[in-house]
Prior knowledge:
By secondary structure, the protein is mainly alpha-helical. 27% of the residues lie in helices and 5% in strands. It has a two-stranded antiparallel sheet with strand order 1-2.
Amino acid sequence: MRAASTAPFERTPQRLARGRYLVVGLAGCESCHSQKDWKSHGAPNLPGMEMAGQEIPIDGLPGRIVASNVTPDEETGAGRWTDGEMSRAIREGIGHDGRTIFPMMPYSEYRDFPMRM
């Protein structure tokens, strides 16, 4: 496991828009990391729970699958993660705490995403 970079990413309106496009659209991160209203047509995200994480129930697995809370909340989310830790989790499947992320998280698909645009 390589050490996560400590260099922060530059924060610009363009990078924020690109990130939103990737998270909400192309990569579909919201699909797993946001709780859904399964009783409503289209299973929209529960208001206020976007990217707040959830347990994903899958019968037959010997354990729990949890999509982490990746909101900027410092107590319950990813607010204390460095940009390098977040990038490493997304691209390499290594969590901020050094644990391997279950491969249901498609980090191998995201490995080549440009993170420093």
